[in-house]
Design a protein that fits this description.
The chain is mainly beta. 10% of the residues lie in helices and 48% in strands. It has one helix and four strands, in the order E-E-H-E-E. The protein is elongated and about 45 Å long. The N and C termini lie far apart (40 Å).
Length: 81
């Protein structure tokens, strides 16, 4: 029997006052690398949820992890990778 290929999908969600925002992976990485700023979150801490979903042998496995993103005065992330 051949091993089934495992598929992994990771999504990021920022929990803002107006509800959850889905952060595309590129935006998430650019925030970590401080290539982009979100001025609307300047001088705040925001909750971010990382959700991983894997399809393994016909079963869907979900895993979530909470992260606190701290934003500096110009909206750059203080969290660095």
């Amino acid at each position: 029997m051949l091993a089934q290929k495992q598929q992994l999908l990771v999504r990021y969600y920022l929990w803002a006052a107006d509800g959850p925002w889905r952060l595309p992976s590129r935006l998430h990485y650019d925030l970590i690398d401080r290539k982009v700023a979100l001025p609307q979150f300047a001088d705040t801490k925001q909750k971010v949820l990382k959700v991983g979903a894997a399809n393994w042998c016909g079963y869907v496995c979900l895993r979530g992890q909470g992260i606190i993103f701290a934003f500096e005065e110009k909206g750059l992330s203080a969290n660095t990778g």
